[in-house]
Amino acid sequence: MGRTVVVLGGGISGLAASYHLSRAPCPPKVMLGGSWLQTLEASGCVLSQELFQQRAQEAAATQLGLKEMPSHCLVHLHKNCIPQYTLGHWQKLESARQFLTAHRLPLTLAGASYEGVAVNDCIESGRQAAVSVLGTEPNS
């Protein structure tokens, strides 16, 4: 069975994921989104299953050299499932932290909304919040 793997807007980690998924024993998944999807929506483009399949196949051909058509394709659209920070996010975050400190409010910011959306970012955010609240590093 032919395989098609595409990660648009995935950067280096996306390319690494593509490489490994293309060699996986089970059929890999195609992921499209981010600013690419936002640009399509802003232009008034109709977001159809056919469009997503066509774009995925085009990207697989140009990015990975996979020209073979997939034997079957399922398209699911999950809008807004991965947070993306807006322009000025870091400045707003710093301003909020300064406000909390200046007013001595007992609030600690942690989670995907602040310092990173990946699981490891969220874990580190929680660890830093615990250190902030407890005033010390954990023993482990």
Automatic annotation (TrEMBL):
InterPro entries: Amino_oxidase, FAD/NAD-bd_sf, Zeta_carotene_desat/Oxidored. Residues 33-134 form the Amine oxidase domain. Keywords: FAD, Flavoprotein. One of its GO terms (molecular function) is oxidoreductase activity. It comes from the Eukaryota. The keyword Transport does not apply. The keyword Phosphoprotein does not apply. It holds the Pfam family Amino_oxidase. PANTHER family: PROTOPORPHYRINOGEN OXIDASE. This is PPOX isoform 12. It comes from Pan troglodytes.
